[in-house]
Amino acid sequence: EEFKQVCLNRPYGDSEHLLRAMCYTTHPYRTPVIGKEFAHIEQVTQDDVRRWFAAHYAPNNAVLSVAGNVTPERLHALVQKWFGQIPARQIAPRLYSDEPEPDGERLTEASGNVPQTAITMAFPMAAYGAPGFAAADAVSDILANGRSSRFYRRLLRPGNVFSDLDASILGSDHPGLFLVSARLLENGPQAEARALEAIREELAGIASHAPAPRELERVKNTVESDRTFSLLPLQPRAEAYAQAEMHGHDPAEPLRRYRSLTPEEVRSSAAALFAPGRARTLIYRPRS
User: Fold this and answer.
1) CATH number at 1-100
2) How many whole angstroms separate alpha carbon 119 and alpha carbon 183?
3) Which 3 state secondary structure label does DSSP give 227?
4) Helix 263-273 vs helix 189-208: crossing angle, to nearest 10
5) pLDDT tens digits along 166-208
6) Residue range(s) of every CATH 3.30.830.10 domain in the chain
7) What is the pTM of this model?
8) What's the rounded Cα separation, in Å, for the pair 120 and 114?
């Protein structure tokens, strides 16, 4: 039912499937977690589920993070009570193929029961925490984080090409994607050409000219305040600690790395991301 609801009965629901199939040729990221097609889920047996659980879900393959009004002594007692009797077991090795570097631009065109043309441009980028990840994150924030961002001021607010425009990154454990996602006000080849030209002009701009220190400082302050407020509730705080432990770094390290970025690092990252031949473009049109 989830596959039908998310992927089949929702406009643009199969966009992720189309995009991943275009962006990944060898890595398992080629297939969304929910499955490549509905038949994959229909054919899963209870034995398949049990084998998968046994291969991956064990105390020696988990991080337990707790945030709250509890003493270490009480916490250790509760952990031992509820989890202490679960035995460790052998975990299936993670054998992933490295995705080759892009060898030229790719284009996928699709149509469906959707209200307007959508364009998604994807560019391969660094894995979470790897060199270049923080700079790519800053590129996305300069382009699309808030009403003072470049996309909003230059492309969205004029209101003649886009109804929605965003830039984001995938925080994947393995090399992920930098995404530019757009919805167009008009359909047709001319509208698509105008949209792609406008997006490429902005990408070329940040790749060729470093952002002003004030512009970079603005997004640094925005990201820091957003993260600070997001960690006030206990649940997000526990999740952040668990993620840091899983990746082997101090919980404050990602923000420190982000704050240390220079304008030239951001420009250099954009130049590498948006170099010729790296774009994967999905154009999703209303079915005529």
Assistant:
1) 3.30.830.10
2) 6
3) helix
4) 140
5) 999 999 999 999 999 999 999 999 999 999 999 999 999 999 9
6) 1-100, 107-286
7) 0.92
8) 15
